[in-house]
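Title: Comparing notes on inverse folding

I've been comparing how different people in this forum approach sequence design from structure. To keep things fair, I'm posting one structure and asking everyone to reply with a full sequence. Here's the target:
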């Protein structure tokens, strides 16, 4: 079972903070077939929503704060952002921004887990989040990369009530029987300066072609297309401004 729409506790949205919004729009529109529309209101700060057809699937934004890294961020749906932010603090994390209202569309907060990974909380009002999940061109998987996996499990199960399906090689997160993400332990292969982080994976029709298209458009392949035994075919890419993201094709897709 996979998520095809936002559910409470699960990933509901992903946003790219980028140093060159116009270039990022061109790159991702070419790669995923997105149609990106920037909110014209000054108070929206250049917030840009990418669509597939009529469905919103992701956002692209300028960098709003000095020192903010170029990166994709993942949001998780909660019924009450204030209560969820309180659980974050009680479980050993920190709330960096908010909770605060975003026009009439929702209430959000930015938080960091005890292992250093930043994520967002989203309490929907007029905007529930992604109109598509797990369809080609949309968010389909989220992966936590951390150096303290046991602490991460304790934290996220406390804050969101996720189930944990752990094997020898990989740990998967789930909610109500649907696995939506996983966790990788950062070992010595990861440079010391790379912090713990959440990595979004977008579903695609062809991982190899997408990796080639990304390279041709000025991106970089960080992990070559690889088939996971009894699992998906995946690759990890970096866009021309430096943001990392994954792409995948599920093993059961024809």
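Reply #1:
Here's my take.
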């Amino acid at each position: 079972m996979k998520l095809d729409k936002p559910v409470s506790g699960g990933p509901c949205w992903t946003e790219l903070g980028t140093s060159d919004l116009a270039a990022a729009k061109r790159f991702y529109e070419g790669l995923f077939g997105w149609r990106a529309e920037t909110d014209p209101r000054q108070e929206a700060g250049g917030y840009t929503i990418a669509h597939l057809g009529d469905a919103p699937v992701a956002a692209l934004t300028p960098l709003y704060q000095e020192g903010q890294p170029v990166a994709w961020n993942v949001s998780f749906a909660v019924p009450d952002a204030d209560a969820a932010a309180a659980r974050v603090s009680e479980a050993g994390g920190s709330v960096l921004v908010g909770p605060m209202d975003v026009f009439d569309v929702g209430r959000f907060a930015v938080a960091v887990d005890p292992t250093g990974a930043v994520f967002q909380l989203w309490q929907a009002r007029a905007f529930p989040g992604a109109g598509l999940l797990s369809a080609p061109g949309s968010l389909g998987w989220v992966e936590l990369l951390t150096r303290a996996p046991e602490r991460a499990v304790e934290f996220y199960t406390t804050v969101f009530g996720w189930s944990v399906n752990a094997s020898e090689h990989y740990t998967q997160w789930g909610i109500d029987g649907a696995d939506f993400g996983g966790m990788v332990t950062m070992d010595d292969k990861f440079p010391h300066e790379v912090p713990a982080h959440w990595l979004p994976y977008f579903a695609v029709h062809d991982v190899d072609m997408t990796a080639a298209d990304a390279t041709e458009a000025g991106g970089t392949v960080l992990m070559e297309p690889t088939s996971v035994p009894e699992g998906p075919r995946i690759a990890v890419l970096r866009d021309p401004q430096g943001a990392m993201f994954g792409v995948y094709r599920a093993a059961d897709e024809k």
